[in-house]
Amino acid sequence: MDGILLINKPKGMTSHDCVNKIRRIFNTKKVGHLGTLDPNVTGVLPICINNGTKVIQFIENESKEYIADISIGISTSTEDGDGEVVESDTSYKHITRDDLLSILNSFIGEYEQIPPMISAVKINGKKLYEYARQGKVVERPARKVIFHEIELLSSENEFSGETITFKIRVHCSKGTYIRTLAVDIGKKLGYPAHMSSLIRTKSGQFSLENCFSFTDVENGHFDFISIYDSLQQYQMIMVDESLKFKIKNGQKLENQYEFDNYLVFCDYKEVLAVYELDENHSNMIKPARVFSE
Asked: Each residue of 136-148: pLDDT tens digit?
């Protein structure tokens, strides 16, 4: 029972809660997940089981996609709807669609984002939320993230009222905080803001429509994504018996291939190993991970 199980994470559970639940359902300890989701966030949570955990390092850096509700007029301590109100602006607001689109487009590309205090980012070996629990605010260095696309899903031509809420779809790099994006959108509009809801709709190649609920899993209605299928973004080489022996024994190989990042060696649909360039010998490749027993 190896592979990746796509869970539609319910609201109220941490990502670690989901891992523990899968451990109990399948009676195995070898379980990990890709991309932490906050408890109040739902959507795609890929769970890797048994040998499936070996692919995490090769697919964890892929981009993500979210649908978020952004609320203008109130900021919170956590930058989402769960925190305490920090600032409230009850003035009447009027934002045109063109103005909002211009501001959303200004984030596209590489962007320096300061992670929120309520997050698992480590500063001096300690997670930021641990400082926050002690009532401390520490300096956080900005991190480079990439916004590939931000689409305004709300159809209004004008947004007005004391509070304004609109829906966006965000395609971004790993490690991006959408709640911080919400705050930064508010700053560009000139108002306090927070993220009022969030759904992750894609994690790399994995989409929400292919996810299963825990009820599905407990009733046996689910499918695994194989290790082979999860690595399809990389070049795959089918092996003969001679090459298979070398790979299964973790031997370095002469580099006869043109590839980016990783090269996957397979025996039909069984992944034997993932190789990478040997940094000490430019004409050689070495195993990054051997899958065969």
From this structure: 676 777 889 999 9
Is 38 part of the annotated catalytic residue set? yes
Contact assessment for residue 45 and residue 64, using Cβ atoms and an 8 Å cutoff: no
Topology (CATH) of 3-61+204-226: Pseudouridine synthase (3.30.2350)
Coil/strand/helix, residue 61:
coil
The per-residue DSSP string of 242-261 comes to: HHHHHHHTT--EE-----SS
> CATH fold of 64-203, please?
Pseudouridine synthase (3.30.2350)
Average pLDDT, the chain: 92
- Catalytically annotated residue among 2, 38, 184, 240: 38
- Per-residue model confidence as pLDDT tens digits over 115-127: 776 666 777 667 7
Share of the chain above pLDDT 90, in %: 78
Cα 21 to Cα 248: distance, rounded to the nearest angstrom: 33
DSSP assignment string, 62-97:
S-EEEEEEEEESEEETTSBTTSPEEEE--S-EEEEH
Letter for the amino acid at 96? T
Higher pLDDT: 172 or 35? It is 172
Q: Which helix (H) or strand (E) holds 184?
A: helix 178-189
Q: What angle do CA 136, 139, 142 make, to 5 degrees?
A: 140
Domain ranges of the chain: 3-61+204-226, 64-203, 234-290
Find out whether 46 and 35 touch, Cβ atoms under 8 Å. yes
The CATH classification number of 234-290 equals 2.30.130.10
Q: 8 in helix, strand or coil?
A: strand
For residue range 254-277, what is the model confidence (pLDDT) as tens digits?
999 988 889 999 998 899 999 999
Q: By three-state DSSP, how is residue 236 classified? A: strand
Which residues neighbour 80 within 8 Å (Cβ) at sequence distance 6 or greater? Answer: 38, 40, 179, 182, 194, 195, 196, 198
